[in-house]
Design a protein that fits this description.
55% helix; 3 helices; mainly alpha; 0% strand
Length: 56
């Protein structure tokens, strides 16, 4: 069973606690929820990357 990061984020966003999520999805561990939220946060962080253009 694959549980996606988006599902976990959605559950948390809709008010489920980690304890409730773990009760519904016995394959998960508390660390899985923490890592999913950390991954989602890193995707949402604002980063500026300078692009370089090479001249032919």
């Amino acid at each position: 069973m694959r549980i996606t990061v988006s599902l976990i984020v959605n559950l948390v966003a809709n008010g489920m606690t980690a304890k409730e999520i773990l009760g519904e999805y016995q394959d998960l561990e508390a660390e899985d929820i923490r890592q999913a939220l950390q991954y989602a946060a890193s995707l949402a962080s604002e980063e500026i990357h300078q692009l370089t253009v090479s001249n032919p």
